[in-house]
Amino acid sequence: MSVGAAVACCAIAAACTPEPAATSTPSPTPAATTSTESQIERQMRLDYEAAEKAYRDNMTEQDRQSQLGVAIHTKELTSTATGNYLRFVLEVLRDIRDSGWRADGRTTIRSVARSGWRKDQIHLTACEDNSAVKFLDKKGRDVTPKNGDRIYVQNLTVTRFKGRWKVSDVESRPAKNHEAASCAA
After folding, report:
1. What is the DSSP string of 101-129?
2. How far is Cα 72 from Cα 63, in angstroms, rounded to an integer?
3. Domain ranges of the chain
4. Which residues have C-beta within 8 Å of that of residue 51, sequence separation ≥ 6?
5. DSSP state of 81
6. Which residues in the chain come in under a pLDDT of 50?
7. Is the pTM above the cut of 0.70?
């Protein structure tokens, strides 16, 4: 028998060999099922995530500008903030710039709590910790106010504006001792 004929016989024999019968395996006991996310719950979750991202992106730009000692209407600021909040941010940045200071370090966002959802408006409460931020003058000397508040509670309104979530208003206040201690990382 030639090699070709042997291969052909093996191929035919394999094709003619019956498949083993399907065996049924017991299915595992299903875990407790949770209800799936409804359409509105999904929309709320996505909106909250987008609103928080706008806030965090804005804080990143605030940190960058304060480290440079500038106050500029950048695309990064205006794409994530509008209205009273944008005015508040630029006022803080101008105060740093006009003092001739620059920041060394970044604000830590210790927590963001979500509350109050409407189709085009969300409320967030953020705990910002500035204890790692120092202010330096033009000669590099530390001019950080020694008795100043370093942890703030920010009550933020985030508004959908032309399809984008932007922080639009803020009520800012220093955290009381018990609040500062409870701001989770």
Report:
1. -EEES--EEEEEEEEEEETTEEEEEEEEE
2. 12
3. 39-182
4. 122, 124, 158, 165, 167
5. B
6. 1-27, 33, 185
7. yes
